[in-house]
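Exercise: predict the structure of this protein bound to pyridoxal-5'-phosphate.
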Amino acid sequence: MSISPLMPVYPRCGVRPVKGEHCHLIDEDGTRYLDFASGIAVNLLGHSHKGLIGAIQKQAETLMHVSNLYGSPQGEELAQRLVDKTFADTVFFTNSGAEAVECAIKTARAYHQHEDGDSNRTELITFTNAFHGRTMATISASNQEKMHKGFYPMLAGFQYAEFDNLDSAKALLSDKTAGFLVEPIQGEGGIRPASDAFIQGLKALCEEHDLMLVFDEVQCGVARTGKLYAYEHYGVEPDIMASAKGLGGGFPVGACLATEKAARGMGFGTHGSTYGGNPLAMAAGVAVMDAVANDEFLAEVTEKGERLRSRLEQFIGNYPDLFDFVRGKGLMLGLRMKVESRPFFVHLRDNHQLLTVAAGDQTLRVLPPLVADDAEFDEFMEKLSAGAASFDPGA
Ligand SMILES: *Cc1c(COP(=O)(O)O)cnc(C)c1O
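Solution:
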């Protein structure tokens, strides 16, 4: 047998973390890494956060899982918090981001296939370089060939327009269009915030043609950008939104949020999940919301983001051949490089014990836990500077 017991779909590196402490990961052999990847925008509260651990421990001792056939006081509590703090009136809980996007796609289609709708409207317009997950529907929603290869046929009902180009979206509008599915800030695509005009233009088209505006905030949501959800930066509310990653702070929790109107097709028996919304996941979500869904915390994220950004902007001036510019919002930052970002990300990891994430468009993603403190930001800048000084892009 030559295949590894873990199906070899990830090119796993030699870092093998066994323990986390605040913004650090400790490897099997004791090496300490500064974790400014946060499990890809998941560990908002860092590692080993007392409040989150306490909430999970308490719930695990009380009740871990029951069927969605029963009433859910725990689910109602987290759903109510999300409803109170967002555009949404109702929430479906999932175990991952892709499942949250799946539910969002079904909700958008069901809106039009409702008895008051126009059942010809089955197509969602999605955008170039998007990432929505790895299920069949969510890879079909992305134009990225590398995710399709080997898995044909793709699911019908997706049209790809150019990201951040309103005319390109308009050109695809037809009497089959159900709505738009978009990341307000592309994550995997390279920390690319959509412009205000683009997002506001999509909203206007949705209002004009009775279409669903669906935001995928799996990566940019849950306080990452200094707002609870990134749509708040744009002054535009979606009809449907997928959330996950940070929502459980490290425990798997996803959610599809919708307005009452947008959810009109999602009646009894239309959707489900065995694990979705289990009491343990809900306890984790409530603990995260307790920590982040308040003005003080969000203002701190904004302030930390501004300080980190200005330090990064100053720093890249020293390496004009290596770096192009800094982009992103809050603590969702990207360093656009003039060379491929992956070799630099590997160099930082292996030679400077600094964890970041490579992304599309030659971008290095900087996604610290939102609780990172001054000493950890200083350590980050030191490692990054040392890494840039010792990096040979030709090697
Ligand atoms: C990570 C991600 C997903 C998929 O989430 P999973 O939990 O891996 O299924 C979907 N959309 C965006 C924008 C993401 O960043």
